[in-house]
Specification:
With 143 residues, the chain is of the alpha/beta class. The protein has three helices and five strands; from the N terminus they run H-E-E-E-H-E-H-E. Helix content is 29%, strand content 16%.
Length: 143
């Protein structure tokens, strides 16, 4: 008789104990849930206009329509133009006074790319004063 008695031989365990890993994953999930509200998404804060300076008396307005058509308005005269003839029409409308501002007016349904293309075209043609038309929001106090 041996003092050891009825001992079994233990072999290598072929299974992996996943309980500690599940605990670690649950702790990570809780940390992410707590930290998520503090992370700011990429928010683009666009400027808003409440007041604007006095509008110039004479402007040349380039109107961009949703179907990519263009028109030029100076005073009460309005005529349609195309992209290649835009610069020539603006230069003709300005005449000798090259300091007359050009304003690009576009409907809210117009693609942003179309407005940028018109803006780039006018700036590359050395039109000195090019801007965007906007509607001024009146505050509740001014109403």
């Amino acid at each position: 008789m041996s003092l050891r008695g009825n001992t079994k031989r233990r072999g290598m365990m072929a299974e992996m104990n996943v309980v500690p890993y599940i605990d670690v994953m649950l702790v990570l999930v809780v940390i992410l849930m707590v930290a998520a509200p503090f992370v700011n998404p990429s928010v683009v804060n666009l400027p808003s206009v409440n007041k604007a300076s006095k509008a110039p008396e004479q402007v040349i307005e380039v109107i961009v329509y949703p179907d990519s058509r263009l028109s030029i308005r100076q005073g009460k005269d309005m005529k349609p133009v195309d992209i290649p003839g835009l610069v020539a029409a603006v230069k003709t409308a300005q005449g000798e006074k090259s300091n007359i501002p050009v304003v690009i007016a576009a409907d809210k349904d117009v693609r942003y790319e179309d407005v940028v293309n018109v803006l780039k075209l006018l700036q590359s043609a050395d039109v000195p004063r090019v801007g965007l038309a906007l509607r001024i929001e009146r505050s509740a106090e001014a109403r």
